[in-house]
Amino acid sequence: MKMFNKKKFTRTAVQIFFLSLVLLISISHQLVEKGIIIPIISSASLHSICPFGGVVSIYSLVTDGNFVQKIHEATVILLGIVIILGILFGSVFCGWICPLGTVQEFVGKLGKKIFKNRYNKFIPYKYDKPLRNLRYIVLGWVVFMTAYTGKLAFSDIDPYYALFNFWTSEVAIGGIIVLSITFLASLFVERPWCKYACPFGAVMGLTNFISIFKIRRKSSTCVDCKKCDNSCPMNIEISDKKQVTNHQCISCLKCTSEISCPIDDTLMMKTKGGK
Ligand code: SF4
Ligand code: SF4
């Protein structure tokens, strides 16, 4: 195991950057309402910088040309950027950018310290597999309810919004409860919200089927040690695949030859036929 890993370090730095940026924007938005302006930082609300707002607004945009309440055009532009990233690299937004994913990962580090090798292996496969499709049901419910009511149906239980507003009166109790459950579950399971409930993760997961760059395994050099399987936070079995198209992959690169796989150039994120 390499002591300093450039890929690992870069991903952590990117995650901390976006976590800090969203926190700063959230604080700035609250200060603006009190008449205090932080130069340079946007005063936009979290709803307007969340690409998921673009997903739930698409129906009302197509049918009556309007955004649902609290959503504006920036979210659709952000959604476009994130989808382009997804077509290139798969669900990279979840693994590198989403601050809620980052915070779950940080809580998970404590879980790993407590449970060691048992961490992230508590839920039997036969229950775990179907549970992972739950997020598509959540997605369907959010899009339907938002289109039906014209309001952001998800905002009252949104843990992402609660994470950056729990100290204000703007946050609903439902959001605080879901956030608390997510933190608690993160002590046992890596990224529980991403795996089982996140409606935006459900959308992003679909890009894994079509992405140009994918995790690809060279079977001619693989020694079947299964270190890739054990390193995957999303419990994907990689060692028997030629390429990873699983909708749960978050493009974190933890399994690759640059981090966990002990054989050089055997497990890499690359294009089909790429070096
Ligand atoms: S470890 Fe590999 S397969 Fe698992 S989520 Fe990360 S990139 Fe995807
Ligand atoms: S870690 Fe690398 S060598 Fe080991 S099973 Fe996975 S791809 Fe093969």
TrEMBL record:
Swiss-Prot/TrEMBL keywords: Cell membrane, Iron, Iron-sulfur, Membrane, Metal-binding, Transmembrane, Transmembrane helix
Location of this chain's protein in the cell: Cell membrane
One GO CC term, this protein: plasma membrane
SUPFAM superfamilies documented for this protein: 4Fe-4S ferredoxins
4Fe-4S ferredoxin-type domain mapped to chain residues: 213-241
Main location: membrane
Keyword Signal assigned: no
Parts of the chain that traverse the membrane: 40-62, 74-98, 134-154, 166-187, 193-213
One Gene Ontology term of the molecular function aspect: iron-sulfur cluster binding
Annotated Pfam families: Fer4_5 (PF12801)
InterPro entries per record: 4Fe4S_Fe-S-bd, 4Fe4S_Fe_S_CS, NosR_regulator
Protein name: Putative electron transport protein YccM
